[in-house]
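ok trying this again, last paste got cut off
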Amino acid sequence: MTFQGKTVAITGAAGGIGTGLCQQFGRAGANVALMDLDQAALDRACEALKAEGSVAQAFVTDVADLDSVRRSVASTVEAFGSLDVMCCNAAIFPISNIEETLPETWDRCMAVNTRGAFFCVQAALPHLRKSGAGRVILTSSITGAVTGIPSFAHYAASKAALLGFMRGAVIELARDGITVNAVLPGVVETEALKLLGEDFATSARAIIPVHRLGQPEDIANAVMFFANSASSFVTGQSLIVDGGQVVPETPESVLPPRL
């Protein structure tokens, strides 16, 4: 897939899945606008892209702040002349059980994970419309949409809400040639995964039929399909990318790998 001449904006670009998205789009020839709140990490990610020969610029962005999002989108268009693909990937996952979750924890999780995606689409819409083949890709999750896990009810709610937003946006934006789709990652091997501990990663790996954790590039490949011109007849879809994690009825259903 080639994205030569296309401009792709990616939120949550400073690490994890976001960095994987930036790398893959950059290698495919896109102009990459990296957006994240962590300026130091954002600058490192941007410099790494440029070192590979990609065309990239970094924009410090708080997706929960509409003015911040608008500034970054405007700066992206000023830098590259267009905005064709909006990847709403930024997310946080504070660990807290239902009984102990504070109102401000809930509010911040929803503000970043759900409201942030809404703001990004809202700000990008005039430019996506002008593109003639605008694409919106939301990074949701199997958590909330399909599965549940203790101490992540607030996160699950925010990620499931993205799918409701997607369906509403599909109807409004289709007449402008803009598609809206979502990727639902399973357990992906990122820096954030380390916060959950090695036991979590080991237990997750044990119930994934392909016997490995996801990699950021696995998610990027799915996002790039939705972003490509060949997918113009695909909208309102949610694609699970999890190595089959949601399929086994029990851990014992997972067959061992062949030697």
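PB: full thing came through this time. The CA atoms of residues 6 and 30 lie 5 Å apart.
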